[in-house]
């Protein structure tokens, strides 16, 4: 539940040990390197260093190209051959096995090249088959015509083969006569219902005129000029298609056999990832002729051990510098499982500064509260919880990945939604009541928002005030941490008094307290808070009039807080939206229920409708509960400006590196 303390580590060693030191640091995975540049005056190493960097850049470029193509192939295999069982299903690998991929790289690349060639061959054959099939569609009408399609001309004449509308034949003959082209012959080769297969024989010198005339009559030319009759060409094409289909089956078998080995591609891609990470780190230090120098950040809990190992195993000098909150260093958070599940919300927003408190516990509590309240349905909550539980414990999703962290958070949010569903009495909306003709009613522990929306509105704003107070308490802790105690009394506590006072003043009568006037107490609390703000908001200014003007401007914060509190009415909107949509789905299902067919459609409507509502309402609950953290909660105290800890380590995308104890 805190930001871990950091040390700065400085390493000076012999240049020949640079590669092994970087590999050691990458294996440890606890040092974030600082991109420092050491000025080098030894010109004798400049040329050598430049040549090394150029060679390194060349290797990087080659690996990047290979990895890009490899990831594209992996995506294709996962999309097209997801059902093909893998030869090995264990996605955990030891670090030694990962690093030994270098020895098998050629074997993997040969398999990769075979896959690319096979895929390209399939594409070419598919295009060829499509072309042949188009020919077959055309030739099908000409199969009874006994004419060699390649013999379409003589020394004096040309033959135009094609289809002509039956009604156009006589008109064409008449126009040929009128145009003094009567020596042109129209031969009906095959007669159909609406068109005739024709051969038009004309003198060569009339070619242009005949072509223009045929276009006017929508003459459909036969586009095939191959040796043999249409039937012979058709049968030849059938044999070609059969051969192509046979080849395609063989290629598909090859693709499936390669797909079964896609774990090798995962392995090679992850090896490229860690290699590129190493190359990136190798470019950070500027080496002198005999030495190299590195700086980085390391968690204090690991620094002594790493320093000892470096000095024991390598010829290096290591210096550790303890960093305090006043120093800038990367942010590494450590939280308990519940709070850690919601850490992804903070990570999407940004890192706090080293001087701030870790806001994750507060984010976790209120995200759990508001997400569950917005979804608030036992059925939806159970579905979300069970689905996430399956991914966590059955599918064994990697909880250290972004998707794994999201699933952990949604698992807890599902539990919250289930609890709030009991509180508000929702089980897939009012499904039990509607589908049982009011014989069964799902009980609520508190009240039904559909029946008492005003009550939900009031409690939404009350929870909002509690949320804002949580942020203000975070600010108090930060100010104490910064040593600014006066800010607590002059900038934070007065707003507690003002908000509580105005709340008692406006709604105190509903508390039914007769021993004292709640409204009067609220009025004085608000006045005291306002007086402190007015007197001390501009305390850094020496001029008394400037102070008063700043104080009056400070009171404008009442409007900001009012806007923040009203923002929590979105909780009411989302609770009602989820319930109303569920009610409509249940109503539609009840309309078609009755009889086997009716109940079949009712079940389809219920399943499809409620799954869609869960997806939409769950997404809305996630977005709006996060928005309340980012704007209302963080707006009270969060300064930010830090960056998250990103150490040099073995990062993988497809496989998970086994720990020593696994």
With helices defined by DSSP (H or I, 4 residues minimum), what is the helix count?
Answer: 22
Major β-sheet annotation? 4 strands, antiparallel
C-alpha geometry: extended
Low-confidence stretches: 38-47
**Beta-sheet strand percentage?**
5-15%
Estimate percent helicity.
Answer: 55-70%
Q: In which order are the strands of the major sheet placed?
A: 3-9-2-10
SSE class: alpha+beta
Average pLDDT figure: 88
Description:
With 662 residues, this protein is an alpha+beta fold. Among the domains are: 1-38 and 285-330, Alpha-Beta Plaits (2-Layer Sandwich), CATH 3.30.70; 150-221, Alpha-Beta Plaits (2-Layer Sandwich); 357-430 and 455-636, no CATH class. Helices cover 62% and strands 9% of the residues. It contains 22 helices and twelve strands. It has a four-stranded antiparallel β-sheet. The chain has a four-stranded antiparallel β-sheet with strand order 6-7-5-8. Helix 4 crosses helix 8, helix 16 (453-482) runs antiparallel to helix 21 and helix 18 packs across helix 19 (544-554). The radius of gyration is 39 Å and the shape is extended. It starts with a strand and ends in a 5-residue tail after the last strand.
